Amino acid sequence: MSNHFAKPEWNIHNVSSATGNHALHAVGVARAIKRYGAKAVAFCSMGESATSEGYVYEAINGASNEKLPVIFVLQDNNYGISVHKRDQTANWRAAENFSGFKNLKIMYLDGKNVFTSMNVMTEARQYAIDNQMPVIVHASVVRIHSHSNSDKHELYRDDNERHCARASDPFERYRKTLVISGRATEEELDAIDKQVKEEVSKAHKKAIAAPDPDPATIFDFVIPEPYMPSKYTDGTHDNSKGEKMKFIQALNSTLKAEFRHNPDTFIWGQDIANKDKGGIFNVTKGMQQEFGIDRVFNAPIAEDFILGTANGMSRFDKKIRIVVEGAEFADYFWPAMEQFIELTHDYWRSNGAFAPNVVVRLASGGYIGGGLYHSQTIEGALTTFPGVRVVYPSFADDAAGLLRTAMRSEGPTLYLEPKALYNDPVAETIVPDDFEVPFGKARIRREGTDISMITYGNTTHMCLAAAKQLEEHDGISAEVIDLRSLVPLDKEAVLNSVKKTNRVLVVHEDKVFGGFGAELAAIITEEAFQHLDAPVKRVGSTFTPVGFNRILEKAILPNTDKIYAAAKELASF
Fold it and tell me: Which residues carry out catalysis?
């Protein structure tokens, strides 16, 4: 499909097959155009049926609200594959659905007329630049053939409609206009046609003769090489000097430090910048006051918009770094999933030409009595997508170090924050000013010889508490491995611990069934089976939603007692 091809150095970016998906990217590009004062517009073209997609509405709403120079062209050919526009919207012209939007100009044209199209688009571009406002250009066009090779329009368009479509061919109309107006002769146009056919034939032969792709290249451009820490290469430091810092303070101070380090850094999300409020957990407190509303600003309650415009804005310049609160809680991230998937394969899809430099922060997990919509941890689902790094710190220093590395790296990072630890003293540590933690480097939190506890996030602290009980009450020595980084995974650290202890307990807050621990168990079984003296055992949440009542929450989520009991059972196998 031609929309997948691109040439970023010409400011032409590819788009996905997801209908209307790129409208949000265009708005993000337009935001950067406005922020950096470029004399330009973002151009987004789609069919009229694309306006049925929710994120197209989000894009046009956001562009009108922020007064951004973006042109949305709606090519109206009456059909979305076989679905007629009468089944898409009540208005005959889809652009009329947006007629009540403020700061938005709507222009209509006959898209079958080359001269009208050229003139109106020129006017639209100038209007967007001069007024710094979005424009919708609604173009009435015609689809002469089927939607695609797999589509048969004879099944839903009668003979008369297909005849009228062929009779409306804009190419023939353009040719006749040139001849009648005296701009060109039939002979001149025939010569051009011949030249074009020769060029196409030559290109076709070249393409056919080109070598087939090498299967080994499937691993190229999955994700860019990350920023490599130079001082704290293993993600550890002297923890004996200095004042301890809370997890939330580590996040806040690191964000501010990185905003000072790179003036092309931006952050937005819901509730993150309203007077003295810095997010519902105050992670971004004081940032707008220091860095201004152009760099730190609120977003609508539209998770797709938050993430999609981040992808788009990062396209403007490789030096830009963007941090977004993908949702106020990880539980509400699901509307942004389609845009999240875009983030993960943009680099691969563009053959390394573009990578969205976006850090997606999400307050994750339970233990706050939050119930169904404030207690989810979603790494089990999101680590299945190649092309994104996924980190999950347990202590304040790692929170700072991983955030710094993520913000300095190219490519997307999903940054999951166990919100129950934001102000919990157990997560407090000394945090050096410039601390960095490399991706894919686990940390041994406690040395042991009898059992390996592989964990991350909230359950790291529970594992440490359980390990202490095992040693004091049962004489069992448990080693606690804090993964910190799930993708990339420090497989070497995990396997080395297994070889040392010969028994493994995988612990995480997410559900046991389908959770990230299942992948860990599979890796250990496949690559270290000969070192195991017992089956790999897992501890996590029950396969249920998380209850609001604290009694139910305790029954559902893992805790120190459950980990302790499981470890004792494993040790006696």
Answer: 374
Rounded Cα gap, residues 476 and 451, in angstroms: 8
Q: How many CA atoms lie within 13 A of 84 on its CB side?
A: 8
What does the pLDDT look like over 131-188, one tens digit per residue?
999 999 999 999 999 998 899 999 999 999 999 999 999 999 999 999 999 999 999 9
Q: What amino acid is encoded at 240 in this protein? A: S
Q: Do domains 2-168 and 443-571 have the same CATH topology?
A: yes
Q: Choose among 507, 247, 491: nearest CA to 377.
A: 507
**Is residue 390 classed exposed, middle or buried when 0-12, 13-18 and 19+ CB atoms within 10 A define those classes?**
buried
Class (C level, CATH) for 2-168: alpha beta
Q: List 72's β-bridge partners, or say none.
A: 44, 136
Among candidates 364, 375, 329, 363, which has minimal Cα distance to 553?
375
Query: Of 307, 268, 313, 315, which is closest to residue 291 (Cα–Cα)?
Result: 268
pLDDT number for residue 288: 95
pLDDT band at 18 (very low <50, low <70, confident <90, very high): confident
Q: How far apart are the first and last CA of the chain?
A: 57
Instruction: Give domain limits for the chain.
Output: 2-168, 244-430, 443-571
Name beta bridge partners: 530. none
> Rg of the Cα trace of the chain?
28
Which pLDDT band holds residue 234 (cuts at 50, 70, 90)?
Answer: confident
> Residue 46: which H helix or E strand, with range?
strand 42-47
Residue 42, strand partner residues? 70
∠ CA 431-433-436 to the nearest 5 degrees? 75
Q: Which pLDDT belongs to residue 39?
A: 95
The backbone torsions φ and ψ at residue 429, rounded to the nearest 5 degrees and listed phi first, read -150, 170
- Interval 1-12: pLDDT, tens: 566 788 888 999
- CA–CA dist 487, 388 (Å, integer): 7
SS3 label, residue 430: strand
Report CA dihedral (353, 18, 416, 447) to the nearest 10 degrees.
Answer: -70
Residues of 143-152 as b/e, b for ≥16 C-beta within 10 angstroms? beebeeeeee
Least confident of 1-10, 201-210, 265-274, 498-507: 1-10
Q: Does domain 244-430 have CATH number 3.90.180.10?
A: no
H-assigned helices in 470-549: 491-501, 516-528
pLDDT confidence of residue 1: 52
- Give me the CATH topology for the region 443-571: Rossmann fold (3.40.50)
Mean pLDDT of 258-269: 97
Q: Are 85 and 141 in contact (CB under 8 A)?
A: no
Lowest mean pLDDT among 104-108, 123-127, 270-274, 549-553: 270-274
Q: In angstroms, rounded to a whole number, what is the distance separating the alpha carbons of residues 424 and 394? A: 11
What was the pLDDT predicted at 49? 94
